[in-house]
Design goal:
homodimer, Ubiquitin-like (UB roll), alpha+beta, L-amino peptidase D-ALA esterase/amidase, globular
Chain lengths: ~400, ~400
Amino acid sequence: MAELSPLAPSSFPIMPVINGLSFGTAATAMKYQGRDDLMLMLADEGSVFAGCFTTSKTASAPVHLSRHGIASGAARAVITNAGNANAFTGMRGEQAIMAYRDIFASALNIAPEGLLIASTGVIGEVLEADFILKMKDKILNQLGHSSWKEAAEAIRTTDTFAKGATTKVSVSGQTVTINGIAKGSGMIAPDMATMLAYIGTDAAISQNCLQTLLARASDKSFNAITVDSDTSTSDSVYLVATGHADITQITDPDSSEAAAFFDGLIAVMTDLAQQIVRDGEGAQKFVTIHVTGAKDAAEAKKIGLAVGNSPLVKTAIAGEDANWGRIVMAVGKSGAEADRDKLQIKIGGYLVAENGAAVEAFDERPIALHMQGPEVDIGIDIGLGSGTATIWTCDLTHGYITINGDYRS
Amino acid sequence: MAELSPLAPSSFPIMPVINGLSFGTAATAMKYQGRDDLMLMLADEGSVFAGCFTTSKTASAPVHLSRHGIASGAARAVITNAGNANAFTGMRGEQAIMAYRDIFASALNIAPEGLLIASTGVIGEVLEADFILKMKDKILNQLGHSSWKEAAEAIRTTDTFAKGATTKVSVSGQTVTINGIAKGSGMIAPDMATMLAYIGTDAAISQNCLQTLLARASDKSFNAITVDSDTSTSDSVYLVATGHADITQITDPDSSEAAAFFDGLIAVMTDLAQQIVRDGEGAQKFVTIHVTGAKDAAEAKKIGLAVGNSPLVKTAIAGEDANWGRIVMAVGKSGAEADRDKLQIKIGGYLVAENGAAVEAFDERPIALHMQGPEVDIGIDIGLGSGTATIWTCDLTHGYITINGDYRS
């Protein structure tokens, strides 16, 4: 069992109930022994689902089915297993899903395409449906009795801690609750795939509006983190709105009601995304890269990701070296517009380079102290426009190589 | 001093003289002690230069000046120093170059812009021109007396071995010689920047034609290797044709004479590029990724580079694990067109996956043996078109982290 990440939060948050949303968990023993590894999330009739999925061209069968299920408008539940991603398993992988999906959907009294599928774990091994099928009665009896925390525990693979976040926002004078859980510790761990997230709210929101808000929030949260630049074949984010809160249904993503909800949504999703980085394989430092002055927001993000994915920047941070030369190099290779002589770089808030060169005779001591801490802040001003972006990543350490390269020995 | 890479070639090749091209080397003691670190390459009047440079938006002052020098048509010589890249040094860096360029050009009796500049080493420290200036008489006296091998030794930074390659080809019945030397061991080593290459030939070729052939050959050699996906601010490849061979000047890059010359050029450049990968920081395995069946050549290269840059693929190779699931993941994230169910993956020539799933019951033993060797071959057929590409890379090991992250301790 992996040691708890040194960057883990102190505890799992206390999560309020979301009316209209229930969980059940069970232990299949498919791969893990002595722990739950199957999680069912069911939403009341009238709930609305949105989803964002991996951009991988080799996405897994569960991703294809979930995309279809959300598009159908019939989505009511998600069943998730940990230990086998059922990815790149061809026709047999899809047959395995068909062997349990319709039976569970029927037992839940929902349409077959209304049961979404998520699987995380080994790639390339066909899932044995029997492990899931034999837990049907148990997990159905458990529905409504499992907590958000138990659901978060059941979906873990190489995660060293369960991830949850919660917030309340006021929409039209009424309180709306937003909860979320997630798993993920590298973009792909040793044979363990996937970032998965489940967000639930009692807000009343139309499906189109919910999907728009989820896509916008994903762009600034789960799509703004990077552990190792690798993209899983199974990444999925689900957002369900049960509509139990006493508000008029939000239908316009640009309304003030949507903006109020979005504030809470982005807070929960950013919290979860940052927890995934804090659980990055071998991570010893949590790194925030704040890019300003780029030509536009897309260019700012491109620069932030180039810096956050650079092995040379990430190893320098592991070595506690304020190596701004490597940051300049990464800005240069990003492909975004940049002018060497307009760049300004700060580390821990201290200016280290501007106007195309190092700041003359700066005091290295406070910067060295900052680099020795567990949280490293890099500020990059491009000096060309008003585009900004924030990216979160972690350092690249011997621990990453050990987890991903030495696991056979 | 770093240990010799386990993937190093057995010896430096015997390099014939290229008529019309001479070298001088000297020791400035700017950074390294007890070794030459300054190299001057001079070509006879009538010689023609071509160059390919980093695509970095934060390219160094030497790169800007060399680009300009080649475009001017006046290029006759390159002066190179190892130990300080003079990159991201702003106005003071350019002033440092101006303090020695014109003096050397005048002593060589060539136009100032005819002296190209290359610098490799620490980023962000202003070069002290005095170190170079004081060696003027010594290096001019040495001109014509230094060998290709001595020139290759003088430009080393973190390289664990000097890199050279040579070949002869027949053009219109006459023998043409092509020699090359290079340095580079990571895209950027700890504070040591840069891949540099110098290729010389006695062929007679017009400048436009030479530039076209160099760009085509770079695309399939130096631009087809990756150690850590990072791009230096100083990468430069110089190609000089002295015209001393007894052939009619080649002016059409699509002529049969140009094709004959190109065969030799690509052989020398591929050899040098592969030596840089073999000297990759911490490299224990040399990896060839051969992509076929992509939509076109550009898509094939995109896929090959995504696989070659994937930390998860590279750590799996370090761990001697035939982890084809990670290869599928990297193909999927490349952005190139791919169909999960048409992919075919071979490792060491053995088929491991096809039609969207693992080959059933394949014999793992010969594949495990292949993974244990120092040369790993990955074959990826996309099954969509006729685009092919070959990419060379190395594994990602604890040695890379030590070199790039632990150097302060």
